[in-house]
Please model this.
Amino acid sequence: MVKVYLAGPEVFLSNARMILARKAELARAAGFTPLVPGDLAIPETNSKRERGVAISGVNEGMMRHADLIIANLTPFRGISADVGTVFELGFMCGLGRPVYAYTNSARGYFERALHDYYGGRVAKRPDGATAGPDGLSIEDFDMADNLMLDGGIETRGGTFVRRPVPEAERFTNLQAFEECLAIAARRHLA
Amino acid sequence: MVKVYLAGPEVFLSNARMILARKAELARAAGFTPLVPGDLAIPETNSKRERGVAISGVNEGMMRHADLIIANLTPFRGISADVGTVFELGFMCGLGRPVYAYTNSARGYFERALHDYYGGRVAKRPDGATAGPDGLSIEDFDMADNLMLDGGIETRGGTFVRRPVPEAERFTNLQAFEECLAIAARRHLA
Model:
């Protein structure tokens, strides 16, 4: 049984349980045992903060038991991936496990920063970097997101699938996820 | 020699070298050997993308040699921390190394999402969660950022220092960084 941890911001959707159940079902159909955030009971706690720490602990525990991760890095509340998912991607890289990711955004980080964040108001700095009015350079490496994400995936032989979807399906379309599953299945299932 | 990896979005500043040199100097003054992104030469490559992957590899190598990390999780181009830094925080947690972090934003994630991202246009969902007009719930755990970040730091006994600074000093004020250094020095230096 090869266990795959399904990371992503789906937990914030109003129909989170349905989407996560669908992802788990697809993972099983591909031959994996899915480990899904929210599937384990959270111990009783005395404050909101303690509860947050408890959930973090449960998720870290699931990742330790997982053989690989498939992370949904679709931009979330801004121009980059959900930081919770990014933490998990980094965590699995640190553990030395195979990592796969996908994004439902077709455009790369440079384009999103330039158009969506700065509204095109960028200029060349004296050092040659393209920067916003705040002076911060925009990294330009033909990547879907920050180089630590794309680089971390590529370095360990993973795949980062980029597939555009209609805006209304940004967090529910599972085509790119299925593509990740198929790639991971070929590599990790006998 | 205890080696500390200095993670943060300072690399994007126009005066990156100056700020990073100052952070390294403060780390040395506290008794650490600083490992700073950008300090090692990047191998020659044939494309922007290859260069990004090469930088990622150099940064991962530095982290493997580091005994601990101090991560600047000040919100970057949005309401959460820089995803590159978050990847590095997760990576060090996966490696089992001590982690420390700071943010120059006094407000927590819930407040930033509610006010800065949704402009106050939030409502209770039938499941009791506070959500934006896009239906996505806002996590509310009295934390500085996503629970995987705050939780991951707290679980391993680290500290996440939160200190407000004037907006103009958002990425250059090093008071919270110095506080992290002092805490880490007490714990990790004889």
Observations:
- Chain B touches chain A through 62 residues (CB under 8 Å).
- The helical segments of chain B are 16-29, 48-65, 83-94, 109-117, 147-155, 175-188.
